[in-house]
Amino acid sequence: MQRIIFHIDVNSAFLSWTAVKLMSEGWNDIRLVPSVVSGDPKDRRSIITAASIPAKKLRVKVAQPLSMALRTCPSLVIVRGDWEWYKLCSDRFIAICRSYSPVLQQFSIDECFIDMSFCCKAEDAVSVALKLKDEIKTRLGFTVNIGIGPNKLLAKMASDFEKPDKVHTLWQHEIQEKMWPLEVRSLLWVGRKTEERLLAHGIKTIGELAGMELAQLINLFGRKFGQQLHDNANGLDDSEVETEIAEAKSYSAERTFPKDYTNPKDIDRALFKVACIVAHRIRRDNFRAHTVSVFIKHKDFSVAQKQMSLAQPTDITAVILNAARVMLGELWDGVTPLRQVGLGVSKLTHEPALQMSLFEEPKMEYYRKWDRQYDEQQEKL
Length: 381
Fold this sequence. Notes:
The chain is α+β, with helices and mostly antiparallel strands. The protein has helices spanning about 15-25, 55, 65-70, 85-100, 125-140, 150-160, 175-180, 190-200, 205-210, 215-220, 225-235, 265-285, 315-330, 355-360, 365-380; strands at about 5-10, 35-40, 50, 75-80, 105-110, 110-115, 145-150, 165-170, 250-260, 290-300, 305-315, 340-350.
């Protein structure tokens, strides 16, 4: 039986959700004018987290500093993000999607997959998706795109076709016409570095990537990522829509030193390395952590440990590392020789979480970019 997978993606989620709330308070629809969602509108260092279509047409970009956007568009309407409201909108959106299929996997705060294989026939998929799309718009006041395909990859690719408020299909027989002509960066999981390497080898489209020899891709990107690129470019993906993931209670890593360390720089370097390992693992498994813990082992094998609760669950290496550094400063006097240092995270959640500091901290996008590059490197190993 052919699988039928829907990928549902809210159009400009933060801006749309903000617009719905403001309209209930008597505002005009900010989606129709150049507008953005950011942190403190009075702080020109704030980072833009969402932009309306009219703003994007004026070259205002997500992750751009507010000051730069204002130089491009001085009349820009700026509204502050509201995490609690976004969470409520997300919950309502997911509840409607779940009413169409109990086999649902939330991919982020504003998108999810549902497996419709046992809920409708392939020939009826578009009409069912249109019904779902229109129900969300009528009941919640914002629009979504829905992609339909035989697997998660193709459904996700389809939902990224023309926006907003659209339903698109990408069946296996449509790949050559609809997907292969797209630029290679349009393929899921192809980041900037991967695109640059492919362009350097003359690969500009997904179709050209699909035609590459597997051995050549493995030589360029390693066995695991090379195989993934080859499969994805050919529309192959056998991953399930996972309604539940085997729940890990915690993640941890430690570093035992070849000799007892007393130099703070050596200790911090070790803490950095284990933070990278732990953060990568929870991102890989789609977790975020509420609690960070640090432990140290002394020369006499005695152990000291401490834990800290975070204001928001996170998967960002820098946030985890900074919490660990604070605790290390409380645990270690900076002089006593250490044999081992370790870091752990616990109180894990799959719940998509928007780091509120993204609205406040201009460096947060840099941290996320660094994490993405680190993850890409790990996948090639």
